[in-house]
Amino acid sequence: MTEKLTLIIDGQEVTTEQGKTLLEVARENGKDIPTICFHEATTANALCRICVVEVEGQRVLQPACIVKAAANMKVQTRSEKVVRARRTILEMLASTMDLSEAAEIQQMMYEYGASSSRFPGAERRESDVKDDNPMYVRDYSKCLLCWRCVQVCADDAQYTFAINFDGRGFETQIGTFFDKTIPETTCVLCGQCVGVCPTGALKPKREYLLEQGMSPQEISVLNSGRKRRKEKPT
Ligand code: SF4
Ligand code: FES
Questions:
Q1: How far apart, in whole angstroms, are the C-alpha atoms of residue 229 and residue 234?
Q2: So where are the chain's domains?
Q3: According to CATH, what is the number of the domain 136-231?
Q4: C-alpha to C-alpha distance for 34 and 143, rounded to whole angstroms
Q5: Within its chain, how far is the Cα of 224 from the centroid?
Q6: Rounded to the nearest whole angstrom, what is the distance from the C-alpha of residue 160 to the centroid of ligand 2?
Q7: How is domain 4-78 classified at the CATH fold level?
């Protein structure tokens, strides 16, 4: 039988089972903790830090998506320090990347009063749209490196290992081995990476072409031409 434990969240005593994260316990008790890199389908990796909470006795804020609840813990999910940290993270993201299609993050910015112009001199991550396969396009100027796509492509779901981190420091981005095009990788075009991307960095090709002004008929003609080329004997 799983052992029970009691802790205090935002002044409220809550009882839970051993092994649960602070995020799980908070959500079970109706507390809203924002998340970005965390996704139910992927292993929590604590990369974005938007879920931080204040735990009494801990010097630094703790990422609720990986820290386990412990007996007698005193946790604050909305203290001034927490709100300031989340606001700053959002402002740093907004200063360095394109969040125009990240609806959930835009909502967080509104909620936390985050300004997109707090760091006006920040260098922005720029990238051309990579359009190299029939299923989806990649626009890494919208990528915040949450790693969800890499995880579902790897051992959290598909086991194809077609994409991974590439580069270092500010130059880090999601990429393929030796910068190969998607058709040259092990990618099976399952679309799971597109499904978990929170920012629109990965987008279905059809949606992209419609946004570019192509009509559904033009897209059909493009697709049938591509299909014919594929079927043509060599
Ligand atoms: S492409 Fe999307 S899912 Fe992948 S790391 Fe970037 S933001 Fe996350
Ligand atoms: S959601 Fe917890 S660190 Fe990103």
A1: 10
A2: 4-78, 136-231
A3: 3.30.70.20
A4: 18
A5: 33
A6: 25
A7: Ubiquitin-like (UB roll) (3.10.20)
Top mutation candidate among 143, 156, 163 for ligand 1, by most atoms within 8 Å of CB: 143
Ligand 2 within 6 A of 122 CB?
A: no
Q: How far is the CA of 79 from the centre of ligand 1 (A)?
A: 29
> Hey, which of 97, 130, 145 would you mutate to test ligand 1's pocket, going by the most ligand atoms within 8 Å of its Cβ?
145
Residue 77 has pLDDT above 80, yes or no: yes
Evaluate: CB of 51 within 6 angstroms of ligand 2: yes
What's the confidence (pLDDT) of residue 224?
79
Q: Quick: pLDDT tens for 85-130.
A: 999 999 999 999 999 999 999 999 999 999 999 999 899 999 999 9
Which residues on neighbouring strands pair with residue 54, listed in sequence order? 76
User: Residue 45's closest CA among 186, 149, 191?
Assistant: 149
Ligand 2 centre distance from Cα of residue 37 (Å): 5
Contacts of 80 (CB under 8 A, 6+ apart): none
Mutate to test the pocket of ligand 1, among 105, 129, 144, 165 (most ligand atoms within 8 A of CB): 144
Q: What is the mean pLDDT of residues 12-23?
A: 97
* DSSP secondary structure of 100-162: TT-HHHHHHHHHHT--TTSSTTPPP-----B--SSSEEE-GGG-----HHHHHHTTTTT----
pLDDT surpasses 90 at 166: no
Is the minimum distance from the CB of 65 to ligand 2 under 6 angstroms?
yes
